[in-house]
Amino acid sequence: MKTLTYSTFALLLILGACKTAPEQTTALTQADYPAPPVAPKKPQVFNNHGYTRTDDYFWLRDKTNPETIAYLKAENAYADTVMAATKDLQKTLFDEMKGRIKEEDQSVPSYDNSYYYYSRDEKGKQYSIHCRRKGSIDAPEEILFDENKLAEGKSAFIMGGYDVSDNNTIAAYVSNTTGSYAEFELRFRDLRTGKDLPDVIARMGGSMAWAADNKTVFYAVPNQALRSHKIFKHVLGSTAKDELVYEEKDELFNCYVGRSKTKKVIAIASSSFTSSETRMIPADQPNAKFTIFLPRQKDTEYSVKDHPTGFYMTWKDVNNKNQKVYQLPKTGYQDRANWKEIVAHDPKAKIEGIDVFEKYMVITKRINGLLEMNVRELATGTTKTINFPEPVYTAYPNGTPDFNATKFRYSYTSLNRPTTIYDYDMIKNESAKLKEREVPSGFNADEYEVKRLWATAKDGVKVPMAIVYKKGMNLDGSNPCLLYSYGSYGYSSDAGFNANVFSLVNRGFVYAVAQIRGGSDLGEQWYDDGKLQKKMNTFTDFIACAEHLISEKYTSTEKLAINGGSAGGLLMGAVTNLRPELFKVVVAEVPFVDVINTMLDSTLPLTTQEYEQWGNPNVKADYDYIMTYSPYDNLKKTNYPNILATGGLNDSQVGFHEPAKWVAKIRTLKTDQNITLLKINMDSGHGGSTGRFDYLKDEAFNYAFILSRMGMGK
């Protein structure tokens, strides 16, 4: 038998896809399609702690290898062949999702230093246009950046943000055309002419700060492993080499630079997952030497905000995991005897952060999985709570840059309530609605039921879950369901409005969001109980949520789809190994599934600083524990669900090779006729397609896969 080359194989698949496909009423199986691509096995042997591992697909990490690229293209062609019968469905889904976007839209203007700043979108355009008006929202519009022009001719584009000098004439902006969220180019635009200055910082990490002199800029630079480790100073127009002002030498730490809300301080924040340290200089003294505010301590984190009266600081240590808030004097703050506790530690309420204004402080807390905002008058200590009307929701600060503001901006949303922006008047203690997200194709929140459920985990812990579905649905186990979660890094899985998911909900799906351990949904202990040597709780919590949905007749194993991305993709891989029979469909986006190989390679991005998340596999105990759940290493001969794995060739956070290897190995072991697909975006990074409409095409593809695997072809 002759072996087809990848290019020939891909061509045959594409030609085959041109045939008229039958309308799908039942899910087709692997036997109904051509055989998928087969990645050659090129065994590479690893020896760690007396154990031997053989990795047949280690070679796939090399994207400079033409064989790797050919294989990825063959996989993409195969995915298109399998999904050819869903082309009309994908188009329908895309049109539905696009119909929920107001194509011509504008953000609520935000006041900062004499100007109102906002962004707007124009019909048919993929990217935003950033504008401002001087003194009044009725003043003439100034266009600062048109992302559509910056993205012309580019397959990917990300605008990382911009910051304007104190005299309002120069904007420093960061962007890239790789789709990366870790590496950017820094440029400077003269807002009087609309032209970029010749100064260009070719590679930086995203954080930057203007000094008060309107010409000095501090910026962060990552190393090759994408650890933000150096802060440089650049002077506009200078031909001198940029000055290194700080280097973070501890490989567990990243460093970032920014300017405070008061505009008085430039700060460098160094942080690991368990410790932090801040350095400061006056913003009007860019040549001063950065001095340490408080030295780093093991298992201690703080965040400090300057104020004319001194400082306000959140503080976390082993006895105050959910944080407390202190007031510190202008001088003598190094002596803890001078600290005044103004918000005590509460084991049932995690302080997410504080926003300090001239006369007020807003404290954002997480209580029982829901966000709460308290407004404290600094002079009197009087505290009021912003009230929210629904039992399941999320609310969060929306950015109020003006230090002297007496109104605080926040967003409110729930699974069936489009995001709404409010201004809270801190003097009058009342909220004013500014803008509710419009759904042009129509949306009636009252047509949907939202509930909060509690599953019982393997160890008896109660795990919260939010669900939404069409009212009138019968709870008989016949309903399809999509269960989503993340469960890592302390990131909470808040139940906010996702317009896209209603393309499933309106087809009879239950949509569920599980708040599992590893996130900090129920406080910092919730996070600690889902990392390192307790990581397995993340996976068993998710399984418990799935079982609860089934036992309560919201769905069944034949109707249950699951979805997660990045570390949530690790979740997908782990639970699929632990309970493959529990799920019908798995969509793993940019999944972190090759955990042991990645964590053993300190040259890869983000590895060493994540030892505090996953453990250091150079230590035998950590190696042994990671090996109990690493998805790639725990694949076995068994029946697996239908699986779609996605990735981005330019992904700097989870290498494209991780989903590629995972799929290749699954295919050699699975004993079923279910479909396993790999879809690699050859132009994108970790976030997938960057245009607002291109992203919807990716979502439509994913949803069409779920629907088709359940025999729902319309």
Automatic annotation (TrEMBL):
It holds the Pfam family Peptidase_S9_N. InterPro entries: AB_hydrolase_fold, Pept_S9A_N, Peptidase_S9_cat, Peptidase_S9A, Serine_Peptidase_S9A. The keyword Acetylation does not apply. GO terms for biological process: proteolysis. The keyword NAD does not apply. Residues 1-21 form the signal peptide. Residues 37-437 form the Peptidase S9A N-terminal domain. Gene3D superfamilies: alpha/beta hydrolase, Prolyl oligopeptidase, N-terminal domain. GO terms for molecular function: serine-type endopeptidase activity. Residues 497-711 form the Peptidase S9 prolyl oligopeptidase catalytic domain. Keywords: Hydrolase, Protease, Serine protease, Signal. PROSITE patterns: PROKAR_LIPOPROTEIN. Cleaves peptide bonds on the C-terminal side of prolyl residues within peptides that are up to approximately 30 amino acids long. Has an absolute requirement for an X-Pro bond in the trans configuration immediately preceding the Pro-Y scissible bond. Belongs to the peptidase S9A family. This is Proline-specific endopeptidase. It comes from Runella slithyformis (strain ATCC 29530 / DSM 19594 / LMG 11500 / NCIMB 11436 / LSU 4).
